[in-house]
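Feature request, filed as a ticket because there's no other form

It would be nice if the structure record came with a short human-readable summary line next to the tokens. Right now we just get the raw output. Example of a typical job, pasted below so the devs can see what we mean:
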Amino acid sequence: MNSPIEEKANSKQKVLVIRMLTSADVCAIGLPTIRFFQKQLADKEIHFLTFGDMAEVIRKAEPSVVVHKVEANQWPDDFFQAMESFLGLAEDIIIDGYSQIVNLDTAFMPCFLARFLQDAGEPVIGNFLNMSIQKLITRVQAQSLGADYVNLASSYLDSTFLGMYKWMTPWWQSSVVPDGGYPEFYLTQCCAFDIKQLDQSICVVADKRLLKKAKSTKIIGLCLDSSQDGYVYPDTDKLKRCLEQQGYQIWLEDECEGSLNSLLKAMAASDLVVCKASGNRWFAQAVECPVLLISGACEPATLMPDFATDPVSSCPQHASYRSQQLNDSQTCNCDKPENLTESIHSIFEHFAQEQSNG
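Raw output as currently delivered:
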């Protein structure tokens, strides 16, 4: 029996996939979905709608995909302006005449877009608002729409994906956690896509300068400028010095100057990337570079890195919501640079042992 996607796509030529979160999220979830659809719908034209520089990820990885980019000025911070902008975007999508529209996003405005398209009779599957656009606008005009409805996905999210209820559960605590972490959980269990193996790879030419240095030492990238647990690793400079004293060649994320291409090229030339829970974990995977995750207050099972430190409670000194007046018991619990250096040395010993064993 054909899937709903296949049945709709048989009559027309174009399928639109929507995913607008961070560029790393697009890499981890949007990219394998596109490749899945390319196999399932080999005779159809796949289009992808995303936000800002996230389009660069798809264009680099899949040049044949038609990428539509929502610019920053099309998604303003003002809620009412954003609604107006996305209504205009919906009109453009309707004119394009898609045989299937698949919304993988969970954020409010993409779900608002999907609901408008659904209300207009477009062939939408995936996530959408649980309230009609007409009712939403009525409540906005009456000033009776609570902030929680806009800010909490559990308040506004509905879906044709029957497994989406799992998305709101602590799935990482289950007895069987997917090897691919959150992307595999989301696509195979929430969306129920029959993807045997997620293909998140991006082909890039490795940084030549780092490759030259790699002939005589190990290359390590410290990508510690962001973290999902609300605070960045505080001792990056000290960790860099510790590793350099051991003879490793180190590069820092800020040396890539915000260029995704430069970041991917540096990772492709590296033997290890050290990061906290952030998109850097997925970028490293895209170019097949091993990752050591400094877990902090995040659960490693959501990212399933190659290696991870033990998770700890939020650091009382460095968490964004830390107390303004620390008492003597509130000491930093972030991983010490010396311990991380020792762990990294052990990782390379492990690699060497694996290589010798053939």
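Something like this underneath would help us a lot:
Residues 276 and 294 are 5 Å apart (CA to CA).
The longest helix spans residues 337-356.
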